[in-house]
Amino acid sequence: MPEIKKTPIPKDPAVLEEYMQKNVGLNKSFDLGVRKLKILKKNVQFYYINGLTDAGYIIELVEELVAINDNERLSTHLFDIVHNRLVHQSVEPVKTIEEAVDEVLSGLIAVVVEGYSEALIVDVRSYPGRQPMEPDTEKVVRGSRDGYVENIIINTALTRRRIRDPRLRFEIFRIGERSKTDISIAYIDDVANPSLIEVIKKELKSIKIDGLTMADKTVEEFLVKQGYNPYPLVRYTERADVAATHLLEGHVLIFVDTSPSVIITPTTFFHHLQHAEEYRQSPAVGTFVKWTRFLGLLASLFLLPLWYLFVLDPTLLPKGLEFIGPNEQTNIPIIAQLFIADIGVEMFRIAAIHTPTPLSTAMGLIAAVLIGQIAIDVGLFQPEVILYVAVASIGTFATPSYELSVANKMARLLLLVAVAFFHIPGLVIGCTLYILFVTNIKSLNTPYLWPLIPFSPKAFVQILIRRSMPGAKIRPSIVQPRNKYKQPAKS
What we know:
Largest sheet: 5 strands, antiparallel
Number of helices: 16
Number of strands: 12
Order of helices and strands: HEEHHHEHEEHEEHHEHEEHHHHHHEEH
Strand content: 5-15%
Strand order of the largest sheet: 1-2-4-5-3
Oligomer: single chain
């Protein structure tokens, strides 16, 4: 791709003003402003965006610049004087108009001085947005209540507050030909795998697109090239403590401005089954919560296909469980009932997202009392169908990762189709193909089912059992950390 020619900052501010009018929309876009001052008989201008800049800082800067006329004599070093009088911790010179425009449109101000071919960029950004609060999708009984927001500066600060290591790095990029979205990768310099860092940098820099309006999801699709594979290849979190924990393990995080979700790479299937609640309780309670969640996962995947197999062939039921299966005949095939009920639950979940909170309770009552009970009374559904679909749905809701829960539901429906057509061989072959499919998935060259496949006994035990923090001394080998020990060696 040919390199775009850069235009140097003109020494005459009027020329820059004309450029801003012609190319950036000055005097057309109401939010783009310019303030013109006369300092020591020379023209000084600065450009800003209303709504993205802190007006208080701008007023203070204007006062400082105007005061130069009262405290300084005519000088050939006005640029240096202005530079010194910009009372802000972040002041950087730029030499091209394109750089200055990008910074202004990002919420900074650009100060130009007559006779000098540089602009001073002052970071006075004040992005509109909400304050850190607990994310709805990752609530805990005990633990911090601050979560990431749509402001990348606040998000990196929340992370830095938890890891005050001088080796923690935040490298920033600007991606999108038109959106120019700020993206930062975070890692601990002496822990994260350098090869992984370079791969992520290369992939991010290769993104060529107009804009990242869907923020982190667009970045993910460029990063892992998922295609139509429904299983999530990266993990999202809105909790700063979860993100900090993964940084200490050797993962690389990706922060995208305007998104409250942070991308964790690389991740495996079992990363999507972790939740902060397990580590906010004692090891025994955390292990119990883990096992309960795994049980819910298995129910969400295999309960309905297995029950339907028993409906088709009751002779497979062991003695004492003959009561399983519908006792009444119905005009609608059981497989159709299962699909209608399962997709109906998904429709209710989608509706809940779009329903205002005060109405969600009423919608739940409509779903449970009116639709469910009346559908049974009129003979549309067998009671057992509602029961097992409900249990499978609870397992779906118990899965911490929304993306993984939807992918598992799709797999469950495919297994139901296989059982409907081929009975026992359908279930066996379907489960085998499912395992082979998931096994062949790789996320940034990371085996998706690690530590189960390939099998790592020590790591798999840590998946099954929540260990106490003093006993968890080794970082996960899957991220290939440079320093594999979490705790410093004894002196």
